[in-house]
Every structure is written in C-alpha cells, then in structure tokens.
Design goal:
CATH topology of chain B: 3 helical TM bundles of succinate and fumarate reductases
Distance between the termini of chain A: 58 Å
Radius of gyration of chain A: 20 Å
CATH superfamily of chain B: Fumarate reductase/succinate dehydrogenase, transmembrane subunit
Bound molecules: protoporphyrin IX containing FE
CATH class of chain A: Mainly Alpha
Mean pLDDT of chain B: 90
Low-confidence stretches of chain A: none
CATH class of chain B: Mainly Alpha
Low-confidence stretches of chain B: 1-5
Radius of gyration of chain B: 20 Å
Strand content of chain B: under 5%
CATH topology of chain A: 3 helical TM bundles of succinate and fumarate reductases
Number of strands of chain A: 0
Strand content of chain A: under 5%
Number of helices of chain A: 5
Shape of chain A: elongated
CATH architecture of chain B: Up-down Bundle
Number of strands of chain B: 0
Oligomer: heterodimer
Helix content of chain B: over 70%
Distance between the termini of chain B: 56 Å
Number of domains of chain B: 1
Number of helices of chain B: 5
Shape of chain B: extended
Order of helices and strands of chain B: HHHHH
CATH superfamily of chain A: Fumarate reductase/succinate dehydrogenase, transmembrane subunit
Largest sheet of chain B: none
Largest sheet of chain A: none
C-alpha cells in the first residue's frame, strides 16, 4: 500500500488486490477465443456428419488439430481467469478463496492437459 | 474475514442485483457473466469429453453421441451454443466500450438491445446450418 496520496491509499484494495494484468490477459485470450471459436463453429457447420469416422478425419488434419490445441489453451486460460473473478467477487472468506482458486487451477490444468493429449493422440493416429 | 471488514467495518454495502431496475444494459452485463461461467462449467467439460471420446475410439464416441443426441443432450448443446453466441456479442460490445466508444446513452442502449437479439439469431443460423447440411 502507498504513501498517503489518494491513489496510493486505494491501490490494491479491490477484491483481487491487483488487476490490470489479469484484465489484459482476459482481453488477449478473448481475441484468441473469437478467432478460434469461429473456426470451430464454421467447422461444425461444414461437418454435417458427426459420426466417429467423420470427426476423426476432420481432427487428423494438421490445421484442425493445431487450431483445436490452440483453442483449448486460449479458451481454458480465458475461462480460468473468468472463474477466478467470480470467486474473488463472491467469496468473502480468504480461506475459501484460496481453496477454490487452487481447485480451479487443478481442474483447468488437468482438463486442458487431457484435452490437448486427446487431440495429439488423434492426430498421430492413436486409435482410428 | 473479508477485506472490507478488515479495513473498515462501517463501510456500507451497495444493493445488489435483485434491487436494480431491469434494463437492457443490466441484462447484457449479467448475461455476459452468466454465459461465460455457464460455458466454463458446462461447455468445457463437454469439450473435454468429446475430444477424449474421439481419441478413445468408436465405442466411447458412441456413448457420447447417444447421451448428447438425446433430447436432454440436444437441449444442453443448444444452450451452450446460445451461451457462446450471446457471450460473443456482449464480448464484442466489451471491446467497443474498452476503447472508450459507445457510451452515448442512446447508442449504448441500442447495442444492449441488439446484442441479445443478434445472439439468438446467430444461434438459430448455426443450428440451421448444422441440421440442413
Ligand atoms: C467470442 C469469443 C469470446 C469473447 C470475445 C469473449 C470476451 C470476453 C471479455 C471481454 C470478458 C471480460 C469481461 C469483463 O471484464 O467484465 C470475458 C469474460 C469471461 N469469459 Fe469470455 N469471451 C469469449 C469466449 C469465451 C468462452 C468460449 C468462454 C468459456 C468457455 C468464456 C468465459 C468467460 C468467463 C467465465 C468470463 C468472466 C465473466 C465475468 O465474471 O465477468 N469466454 N469474455
Ligand atoms: C443489476 C445490476 C448489476 C449487474 C447487472 C452486475 C453485473 C456485473 C458483472 C457482469 C460483473 C463482472 C464484469 C464486469 O466487471 O463488467 C460485475 C462486477 C462487479 N460487480 Fe456488479 N452488477 C450489478 C450490480 C452491482 C452492485 C449493486 C454491486 C455492489 C455491491 C456490484 C458489485 C460488483 C463488483 C465489486 C464487481 C467486480 C468489479 C471488478 O473487480 O472488476 N454489482 N457486476
């Protein structure tokens, strides 16, 4: 906390105690989401057939596989930041906040790793 | 103990959501949060399951398809897709507001009304494209 100037006295007092970096990350990943989710939505619309053979064929193409891996990174990061804000805003107790943030990290890193591994194994022809 | 309590217990709390008068700006604001959190909590587990099922082979994928192809599953999918398009239009509105534009009362109101309508239209167009293909 600061030296008694008006801005110094309020800096860091928000629910998160900091923010500009988080805010920028949310925007950068939002731009990534916009591009990559548009790719996914258009792919879905063009796919038509959602059977295993059809989605497998789509996801083994290098462009689709790369796009979906990037999508997982961008969207998971963005959603992880978004849920953190939710926890910061509505959870008053510091211990609960800490516990939920830890849980968020585990869930997102775990889910993201599994999703990326799945795409890689599909692209490398794991189980056709 | 909350930050507020530690600093100054006499600081007042503001009235929250249920006390505010409903209007288009407030609606898009809270919809952005609700759809973002909804996608994070429901959409992402579905995405992970979908990718995992494709990777695990035809049998696992058939389970995914039978669950998500059921009426309830389709309802969830339509819901997640609507959440995406709604979040996208209100997110694009965020970008405009972030650069400092669009705060004039009538223009701000106009886009608050337009965002949910465009979101619904895009959802309908998306499903039309998927189902008619
Ligand atoms: C078109 C793509 C997207 C755009 C343009 C976008 C844009 C944004 C922006 C600008 C914010 C910050 C809002 C604020 O600071 O108040 C935000 C928040 C958020 N987004 Fe996204 N987003 C997109 C896709 C997604 C996806 C796919 C997910 C989830 C899977 C998601 C989940 C969230 C969450 C949970 C928040 C926090 C909401 C809150 O608590 O205020 N977003 N989004
Ligand atoms: C009906 C009116 C309201 C709506 C629709 C609403 C909606 C939202 C949303 C969507 C966010 C997160 C995204 C953003 O920052 O833009 C937010 C943040 C927040 N809201 Fe509200 N809210 C309302 C009223 C209130 C009231 C009355 C309070 C005071 C108790 C409040 C306190 C906060 C705080 C502290 C944040 C976090 C700001 C930050 O750290 O960035 N909100 N609100």
């Amino acid at each position: 906390m600061g030296n008694g100037t008006p801005i110094g006295r309020v800096r860091g007092l928000g629910t998160a105690h900091e923010g500009a970096h988080h805010w920028m990350q949310q925007r950068f990943t939002a731009i990534g989401n916009l591009v990559l989710m548009s790719y996914l939505v258009v792919s879905f619309a063009l796919l038509g057939d959602f059977g295993h053979a059809s989605v497998l064929k789509w996801l083994t193409s290098p462009i689709a596989a790369t796009a979906i891996i990037l999508l997982v990174i961008s969207v998971f990061w963005h959603a992880r930041l978004g849920l953190q804000v939710l926890v910061e805003d509505y959870m008053v107790d510091a211990g609960t906040k800490f516990g939920l943030t830890a849980l968020l990290n585990l869930a997102f890193i775990g889910g993201g790793a599994f999703a990326i591994f799945s795409v890689v194994s599909i692209a490398f022809g794991g189980k056709a | 103990m909350s930050q507020r309590d530690q600093q100054n217990p006499a600081r007042p709390l503001s009235p929250h959501l249920q006390i505010w008068r409903w209007g288009p700006h407030m609606l898009v604001s809270i919809l952005h949060r609700a759809t973002g959190d909804g996608m994070a909590l429901v959409g992402l587990p579905l995405l992970v399951w979908w990718l995992g099922a494709i990777a695990s082979g035809p049998e696992a994928y058939a389970t995914f398809q039978s669950v998500m192809g059921s009426p309830l599953g389709m309802l969830v999918l339509v819901g997640v897709s609507w959440a995406f398009f709604q979040h996208m239009t209100s997110g694009l509105r965020h970008f405009v507001l972030d650069i400092g534009a669009g705060y004039e009362l009538d223009i701000n109101r106009m886009w608050s009304v337009a965002a949910p309508i465009i979101g619904i239209l895009l959802t309908a167009a998306f499903w039309a494209a998927v189902l008619l293909k």
